[in-house]
Amino acid sequence: MKKYIVLSLALMLCLFSFAQKKEIKTAEKAIKSNNFADAKAALQSAEALMSAMDEKTKAKFYFLKGQALYANGTGNDLDISEALNSFKMLKEVEEKSGKKTYTAQASEIKLNMGNAFIKKASDAYEQKNYIVASANFERAYRVSTSDTLYLYNSASVAVLGKKYDTALKIYDELMALGYTGITMEYYATDVETGKEQSFQNKQLRSFSIQGGSHKDVRDVKTKSKVGEIAKNIALIYVELGDNDKAIEAIEKAKAISPNDFNLLVSEANIRYKIGDKEKYKELIAEALRIEPNNVDLVFNLGVMAADDDDVETAKKYYNMAIDLDPKYTKAKMNMAALLLSQEQKIIDEMNALGSSAADDLKYDELKNSRQQLYKDAIPYLSSTLELEPNNLSAAKTLMNIYSAIDDMPNYKAMKAKVEELESKN
Questions:
Q1: Alpha-carbon distance 83 to 81, whole Å?
Q2: By C-alpha distance, which of 123, 156, 117, 164 is closest to 137?
Q3: Yes or no: domain 343-424 corresponds to CATH 1.10.10
Q4: What residues contact 218, with CB distance under 8 A and at least 6 apart?
Q5: The pTM is what?
Q6: 367-412 tens-digit pLDDT
Q7: Between the CA of residue 73 and those of 61, 392, 402, what are the distances in Å?
């Protein structure tokens, strides 16, 4: 009786094996014909017999399942995720067995998958279809988890698409991975053109140096993206109305990178956004101690002072910004606007005067002060227009000023300039 039972079990196992091979062969044939629906159906039947598969059959099963689910890029999100998992299982099975029959082919398919995802992501991004771009950048990362830049791109693009939940999930993953975004960039000067050129890696640059086509190597370490990630997380929470979590996100990032200049600026911007102006000023001042010549920060302090109607402090910071960068037109335009904003006070005071001799004298003084405001604003606007010849706002303001001070030659010249610029729009 025992021999009969053993024989029956062996016969059953043979039937299982036959069924597995039949379904796997059907799936393989369907994949070659791009009939992925039939392939998935056959593999689903084969999977029910997984417990009886040997290592070689399991490897082939996972290899085919990955292809069937990917479906040459037409699979849905769930299928593609499962396809990548199947290729992962294939790798584990073949590493365990020591026989890598399908691993190389799977790696080639994954490479094609990755390239396809990157192209889809890039195309979608160009079309401002940020949700599709984000999904495909994440897929590219899942194909090759060493390329964390794609995961970072996925989160950044998700923010643009207002998919905040997706962005937060990915940012959390990046922070858990210890992602900083710091990379080394490799440069060398082209001997023939004299221009500096970047290289994908150090080895490629070495080949060019050895070949004599390049010289003067230079390595540049990129800045950490931890600050930018923290800023984006915080801004998402601000957008969602959770200011406490926004500040908490910044604090966590500062614990990782305490001396990060970008983090200081990011926190300052968050504080400003939630109305904490005093903390904003404090953080900007701290950032300026690290980068005292940062013209943008100096300019921002001028904007803050102007918002608080602190005219003299605003002037001080705008002039500091212009001294740091004589081509910084934002400060010049703001300085002109600040000067002209004082006109209304003068007009109100003029209108409040009576008709006495003393009032007439005061009126003339105020009129001169008003004229002087116009004249003080002219150099800032003229300089802006020299640096930005198409700045219509600067041209219009100058035209109005020349009219107000009765400078007809300059008024006519500026009027022609305004008409020229308006005709281009």
A1: 5
A2: 117
A3: no
A4: 186, 187, 188, 196
A5: 0.60
A6: 888 889 889 999 999 999 999 999 999 999 999 999 988 899 999 9
A7: 19, 49, 64
